[in-house]
Request: fold
Amino acid sequence: MKYRRKLSGYFLPTLKEDPREADIVSHRLMVRAGLIRKISSGIYELLPAGWRVVRKIEKIIREEMDSIGAQEMMMSALQPRGLWEESGRWNEYGPELFRLKDRKKRDFCLGPTHEEVITKLAASEISSYKELPFTLYQFQMKFRDEIRPRFGVMRAREFYMKDAYSFDYSMDGCRKSYENHVDAYKNIFKRCGLDFAMVEAATGSIGGKYSHEFMVTADNGEDEIALCSCGFGANSELAPYRIREEKTDSSVKQKRLEKVKTPRMRTVEEVSGYLSLGSEIFIKTLVYDTEKGPVVALIKGDDELNENFLKEAAGVSELKMADEETIQELTGGPPGFSGPLGVNPEYIFADRDVLRMENGVSGANEKDAHLLNINYPRDYKVNWKGPLRKVKTGDLCQSCGGVLELKRGIEVGHTFLLGKKYSSALNAVFTDEKGISREMIMGCYGIGVTRIAAAAIEQHHDKDGIVWPPAIAPFDVVLIQLGKKTSDICKEMYKELGEKYDVLWDDRDETPGVKFKDALLVGIPVHIIIGKKYLSDKKLEIQYRNTGEKEFLHKEEIEERLGDILGK
Reply:
């Protein structure tokens, strides 16, 4: 028997109006449909219908993880400081880490992730190559002290997640484990009814050799991703692009350098408006401090710097905007009026598009002044030239030369090939077939379970509410009872359909309009309306949430039709 409930006794507190604090569709509808309630900033309770959605997503994930041989377990959410100090992340992780002390003043944290815990377990229990490979996974609440929790469960301080960790004795084996997880993830997101893309991504605070994000495309996505029809995809923070080999127009005459007054005009937008010039002919000069000293980045005024590209070009791991003293020392002028003229070329890293500009505009390294007609290499030199800007729609794919398109995406999964990062730090070693001690090769793989629910709503909704993909809907069918005379047939249908489907029986003493609106809002895939039509000619009205179509069927035809629609 499947899950059955009568709505008169089911806790489903739907709302007629949108909550004030909700900014995006999924947040609004999860609150209105009675799936979640806020307890504090970034902390939400999952109500019965919301928990049912999460459990269905969890079931799909568990089936796919088990299919690749992963083993489920449960780790502690409370983690001692010592583990994080061994890995070097206690201070590195930053203010997002929830830290607390016990009664003996010992430091702990609430786990945002479990690399340290799982690696320590492997280190203490595994000694031989014969015990490898294996993968462990869990479902658990994670904790991150987000500076700006927003968008409901999309960016919360407490969230439900599946995290997995693979251990191998060779890099080839780890890559195989990684590919197995990628395949499982693709199956998971397909089964959840999501339109998604797998993109290259930065490894961030988790670290490792490389990683991929699984992005659900949606207008309200927090991340920007670059996609090509050839299948290439990357987060825009990391996306490479093919540099167009364009020749400089030799017919353009380089004009004489000219200084102009720009009182209190510091930004490209302000100066371009003041001088009535397009931002594309401006040189944006950005000064950063790094662990190796200052660097100066040059990009076009209408472009955005890709800090990952600058880090790679300069061979540094840290970037922060330089203070006023550093800018003054390096350029000879105050912040807001910086330009490459007169700056030591040793410090300058230039986007190649900047060097193609003819008669550009830059800061004059002097208060309230800019330069017109600055040209490379006549007026300034550089240490390095190459791609420094973020990718844009219309750029060429590095893989195939096709045209890239930028879209918004919601990250629902992230896979990392960690290598030896944690096994080395936490001494997770084994003895190989030759008796030599070696470090385990690791991968880690996360899925945001509650994020999948929100992302599904972002992709599947209309003006009336949620339109759940059938596989993760809280109920398969809602029986909408109209009038007391249909009570007996409703009871019969409730019992029979409940053998195979998750059924909600709306037996409330409410008007038909209220019942119809709630059924649409909650997004249950199939609505079976039992009213006058059944009493007159024994036909049931069936409405399908995803299409809005309706048909009238005899009771005996219902089960076969539901099988076609719900795939069960």
